Task: structure prediction
Amino acid sequence: MTINIIINGKKIEAQAGQTILQAAKEHDLHIPTLCYHKDLSPTGNCRMCVVEVKGGRFLQAACVTPVWEGMDIQTDSEKVVKDRRLTLQLMLANHTANCACCDVSNECELQELVYEYQAETPAWGTKGTRYKVDSDPNPFIHVDMNKCILCRRCVQACAEIQVRDVWGVAYRGFQEQIVAGAGTTLLEARCESCGQCVAYCPTGALSTKINYGQGMARAHQVTKVTTTCSYCGVGCQFDLVVKRGKVIGVASNPNSPVNGMALCVKGRFGYDYIHHPDRLTKPKVRRYLLEGGEKLKTNRKSEIANPKLEWVETDWDTALNITAKKLGEARDYFGSDSIGILTSAKCLNEENYLMNKLARQVIGTNNIDHCARL
Ligand code: SF4
Ligand code: SF4
Ligand code: SF4
Result:
């Protein structure tokens, strides 16, 4: 049902049941947020999205307040701006003051709003470094709770997206903090190292450990290349972060059609093989095949020592010609069903379709299968 509301003096239409934030977003009206994320249930705990509702005694959190017929809302009144600035100052009072050295500087939502509202560090001072930096021994996630603003996005991302419930809130008042399990380490609290909590954290409280200090968020130094994960057949997309010709990390791409921001530990953190010196970048064939020789009669011991069995780098045409020749010889001598083809769910559909044609129509066998683990 459509209802009429007023935002900043402008009459707009909204849907009954929508929140003020949803209605404003639909009409391209900006209301700042920190704890809100469209993928997570709204909690209204950071108070950045507060707005003034005519007739209301208090400012209302736009992300959890539903609209009603005739509602008259001010999103940027003096009172609202003052309140948001004070909220930001309270966050800064509990925050490390080293934006310049922070790994997420440039992509930090708190930094963005502190600038927008020109919120100075409060005159009554800050608490400085209260918690150990890099406080968790896990190999992937850098935890620095000195930068935590208690927005709880990590708690929700882990519970609602990954369904692991690793993060929780402990203590009350000034002592309140985000903890893994009942105050233990991430891995002991059943963390799967998927990194969803890192992707949803709006500050540098949670960041990636394996590329810490490499400038993942320095937009002017890196290029992002959207690609599809090669680890399994789900086909998740993400951005490879490239700096000076080298992949330094993986970042969630919220527009990914299959997975949104979600990735598993392999997709998010298993990228260092790309530049590994042992990685094959060209095809290799046995030397005797390059020299056109017949199959050598060998045993395991002589194979190790025989230089004709050495693997030699070659070009794709040569390698594919040798493969085609050998498959043809096997088919002609032993019959089509002596050959079987295993393909992979990691290949594109088009590639698997072509392998199917190669097996059935070129070689003449139905021996074709695939496995998601190949
Ligand atoms: S988390 Fe954000 S606000 Fe805090 S130091 Fe890092 S960049 Fe600055
Ligand atoms: S890495 Fe994944 S499983 Fe571990 S705490 Fe974060 S969201 Fe939960
Ligand atoms: S660790 Fe990050 S996501 Fe979690 S509550 Fe703190 S700031 Fe929010």
